[in-house]
Amino acid sequence: MERDMETPFPPFEPNGPDDSARGPRLREIPLRLVFPNLITILAICAGLTGIRLAFENRYELAVSMVLLAAFLDGIDGRVARLMKATSKFGAQMDSLADIVNFGVAPALVVYVFALDQARSLGWIAALIYAIAAGLRLARFNVMAERENKASWQSEYFVGVPAPAGAMLVLLPVYLGFLGLATDRTFAYLSSIYTVLIAFLLISRLPVWSGKSEGNRLRRDLVLPMMLGVVLYVALLMSYTWEVMVFTVAAYLISLPFGARKWRRKYGTLTIEEPGIGDDDIGRHI
């Protein structure tokens, strides 16, 4: 009698119990799997907050939030690998965060600060950069998923990476903070510069990544390098916008040297690989 009261209407299952019809089971997830995704979410929040601060004319905080978003978005993947917490869900989250932090947020901040004085041309330039960042990220994701990767992929990027593009495109804002007049001429020049950075993102220019495992540093250069990093950070904290202008200039100057190194090794000026041509735009742009 007690058993009948517990299950007055037993389920009709002629072929036996079907666990698949009960839906997914709830199970506990280790905290280490959640932590990298929290960093990604914080990066999205920082990028969106940077957009809000820009529309409130709080430009220094806006740029700081965008740079913070780029930093957080750059470390979440490394944190996931260190904690052995990589997952397909995290990879999708990171990919969606990239377009916000490296494409939309920098484009809107630089537009509100400088490009809006160029009217429609400024907005077109901002749109071109945001779309170029999206195309760049899509190409990177597709190439990263390939089973057979080329040997050069551990040493070179195809075009300027999106995080670097976000740092580069904000140059007009850095110059404005240093006292440069942000008039209409400045807006037109900034629009041209923004389109140029967009072109570098989607180009096939070989950009040295510095990730090659074969790179080694001489023992006598370790301490000077560490002191150099400390000096850079100290200057960045004290002379933030001057150092950012210097960093952008140094990065742009380094691009021809990376392309020259590629040409000496592979004999071409741009990266051309079979299977990534114009006739295969559906798989690789």
From TrEMBL:
It is found in: Endomembrane system. Residues 1-23 are annotated as: Disordered. The chain crosses the membrane at residues 33-55, 95-114, 120-138, 158-180, 186-209, 221-237. InterPro entries: CDP-alcohol_PTase-I, CDP-diaglyc--ser_O-PTrfase, CDP-OH_P_trans, CDP-OH_P_trans_C, CDP-OH_PTrfase_TM_dom, CDP_ALCOHOL_P_TRANSF_CS. It catalyses: a CDP-1,2-diacyl-sn-glycerol + L-serine = a 1,2-diacyl-sn-glycero-3-phospho-L-serine + CMP + H(+). The keyword Signal does not apply. This is CDP-diacylglycerol--serine O-phosphatidyltransferase.
